Amino acid sequence: MGDKAKNPCVSICKLKDDVCIGCGRSRDEMKAWKSMKNKERKVVNALAVGRLKALNKARKKKQ
């Protein structure tokens, strides 16, 4: 069955352009998390990692 996808929430629930700056999920993904299947959660986690990298890169450019 595989590993269970972990909730990426780090309790920094602040949105920038509809993406949480703490976990990288969109508002819709956060709302739907509990009803998602494990496979869907893994996809969301992978997307969230990419979003966080992009946010951090943009933040560093501003400094």
Secondary-structure blueprint:
Elements: E1 15-16, E2 19-20, H1 27-32, H2 38-62
Antiparallel strand pairs: 1-2
Compute the number of helices: 2
Order of helices and strands: EEHH
Percent helix among the residues? 40-55%
Low-pLDDT sequence parts? none
Largest sheet, in brief, is: 2 strands, antiparallel
As a whole number of angstroms, the C-alpha radius of gyration is 12 Å
Shape: elongated
Protein name: DUF1289 domain-containing protein
Pfam families: DUF1289
InterPro entries: DUF1289
Overview of the structural elements:
- The chain is mainly alpha-helical and 63 residues long.
- The protein has one domain.
- The chain is built from 2 helices and 2 strands.
- The chain has helices spanning 27-32, 38-62, and strands spanning 15-16, 19-20.
- It has a two-stranded antiparallel sheet with strand order 1-2.
- A hairpin with a 2-residue loop joins strand 1 (15-16) and strand 2.
- The termini are far apart.
- The mean pLDDT is 93.
In short:
49% of the residues lie in helices and 6% in strands. The chain has a two-stranded antiparallel sheet with strand order 1-2. The protein has helices spanning 27-32, 38-62; strands spanning 15-16, 19-20.
Relevant terms:
mainly alpha; DUF1289 domain-containing protein; 2 helices; single chain; 63 residues; DUF1289; elongated; two-stranded antiparallel sheet; 2 strands
